[in-house]
Design brief:
The protein contains 3 helices and no strands. By secondary structure, it is mainly α. Helix 1 (about 5-15) packs antiparallel against helix 2 and helix 1 packs across helix 3 (about 35-60). The longest helix has 27 residues, at about 35-60. The N and C termini lie far apart (about 40 Å). The mean pLDDT is about 85.
């Protein structure tokens, strides 16, 4: 599995709070690196915010 996919998987697991034991989380961080994890997390947060804003815009009908 590529490092980018590992980072995406680790961030998604942490978003829903199912990261597992601390040792597992440390192992995932060591495999990917901290900077790619931060980058992927920022992009996913921005996508989440944009999606929520689009949903609110659609629900308001404007």
């Amino acid at each position: 599995m590529s490092k980018l996919m590992r980072a995406v998987r680790a961030v998604l697991w942490s978003f829903i709070g199912l990261g597992g034991r601390r040792a597992d989380a440390d192992k995932r961080t060591a495999q990917v690196g901290i900077l790619p994890l931060i980058g992927v997390a920022l992009v996913m947060v921005l996508l989440l915010i944009a999606g929520l804003m689009a949903l609110a815009h659609f629900a308001a009908g404007t």
